[in-house]
């Protein structure tokens, strides 16, 4: 009975957390602020000690950290530098495969790889050693990933993985909506500039016509 009560309580907490995270994704704020709040919500509602959200830059095809919680200052940037240098990345593998991925013994693997040199001084001091990576996929297209960090020999249970999958699905939709909104704004701005250019052209033409007409009349 105690186990059922505990499971019921945990399920209720997860549903409440999922509802709160989903609501935060619709707030009119920057993507970075939104994803920082999402990462904090993941840590508060799971056994994880840290969380980050990375997105793929469409122009450069590089992963960048857009939200984080529980990570030391500079750690995310150091990882990005290592990835750009060609270091093997579990995050990239999950992104490409569009499948969740466990990565165990990450500290020893990263410390043995010279391409992770920019992050080595961070890695020596971090407490976690296991990560669970959930890709952000929208209509068959990878947008990024949620990286969840766990203490050594700690892994999420099945219900926690289902919970993280649900968060990833919500986040993928929110990220795509934000990009579409930005694209629509850009298109609207372009159309407005083109309209103003036409108006300016028309006004200049009218002015020149008026000057020519006045000259001929004189």
What is the fold's blueprint, element by element?
Blueprint lengths: L1 H23 L6 H15 L4 E8 L4 E8 L5 H10 L5 H8 L3 E3 L2 H6 L8 H4 L6 E9 L2 E10 L7 H60 L1
Antiparallel strand pairs: 1-2, 1-5, 3-4, 4-5
Helix pairs in contact: 1-2, 1-7
Textual characterization of the structure:
The protein has 218 residues and is α+β, with helices and mostly antiparallel strands. The chain is built from seven helices and five strands. The protein has a five-stranded antiparallel β-sheet. A hairpin with a 2-residue loop joins strand 4 and strand 5. It is globular. The model has no long low-confidence stretch (mean pLDDT 82).
Task: Provide a brief overview of the structure.
It contains seven helices and five strands. With 218 residues, the protein is of the alpha+beta class.
Instruction: Write down the oligomeric state.
Output: single chain
Strand content: 15-25%
Main β-sheet, in a few words? 5 strands, antiparallel
DSSP summary, beta strand count: 5
What is the helix content?
55-70%
Mean residue pLDDT? 82
Distance between the termini: 103 Å
Backbone CA Rg: 25 Å
Structural class estimated from helices and strands: alpha+beta
Shape: globular
Primary descriptors:
globular; alpha+beta; 5-stranded antiparallel sheet
């Amino acid at each position: 009975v105690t186990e059922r009560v505990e499971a019921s309580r945990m399920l209720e907490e997860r549903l409440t957390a999922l509802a709160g995270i989903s609501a935060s994704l619709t707030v009119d704020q920057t993507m970075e602020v939104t994803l920082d709040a999402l990462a904090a919500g993941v840590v508060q509602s799971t056994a994880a000690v840290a969380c980050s959200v990375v997105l793929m830059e469409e122009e450069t095809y590089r992963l960048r950290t857009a939200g984080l919680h529980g990570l030391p200052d500079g750690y995310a940037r150091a990882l990005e530098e290592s990835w750009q240098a060609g270091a093997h990345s579990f995050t990239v593998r999950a992104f490409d495969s569009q499948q969740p991925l466990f990565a165990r013994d990450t500290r020893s693997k990263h410390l043995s790889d010279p391409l992770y040199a920019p992050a080595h001084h961070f890695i020596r001091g971090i407490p976690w050693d296991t990560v669970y990576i959930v890709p952000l996929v929208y209509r068959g297209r990878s947008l990024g990933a949620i990286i969840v960090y766990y203490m050594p020999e700690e892994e999420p249970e099945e219900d926690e993985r289902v919970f993280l999958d649900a968060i990833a699905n919500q986040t993928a939709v929110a990220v795509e909506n934000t990009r579409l909104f930005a694209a629509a704004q850009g298109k609207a701005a372009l159309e407005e500039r083109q309209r103003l250019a036409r108006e300016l052209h028309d006004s200049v033409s009218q002015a020149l016509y008026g000057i020519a007409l006045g000259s001929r009349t004189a």
